[in-house]
Design goal:
By secondary structure, the chain is mostly helical. The protein has five helices and three strands; from the N terminus they run αβααββαα. It has one domain. It is globular, with a radius of gyration of 16 Å.
Length: 110
């Protein structure tokens, strides 16, 4: 597949994907080469996020690097994978999640 390959999913004004549609977007994302370009719904679905969440991350910061082509936001698959590796956390059980949440809440000033 070429570098110019772009996911064909529409982005603007589309509702959140159904479970089946999200599964198809995830399958599409994981089948593409690392240098492929994907749209917001496809990039988000790979990590169980909606396109609107990806859009908020793009506006507020903290999301993966993306490019604008006309009015369309496109993400390179490798950038989405790098972002997930940098921002995600690895846990072995749910008790560790509770410890992370408790530590985060204790750092918030009252």
């Amino acid at each position: 597949m070429s570098r110019a390959q772009v996911s064909t999913t529409e982005t603007a004004g589309t509702p959140a994907p159904t479970t089946t549609a999200a599964a198809q977007l995830r399958a599409e994302f994981w089948s593409l080469p690392d240098d492929a370009l994907v749209d917001r719904p496809t990039a988000g679905a790979a990590f169980y996020l909606e396109a609107v969440t990806m859009e908020k991350l793009a506006i507020k910061g903290g999301g993966p690097v993306y490019m604008r082509i006309n009015r369309r936001a496109l993400y390179r698959k490798r950038d989405v994978l790098r972002w997930a590796a940098e921002t995600g956390r690895t846990v072995e059980n749910t008790a560790q999640l509770a410890c992370h949440a408790q530590a985060a809440s204790s750092k918030v000033p009252a």
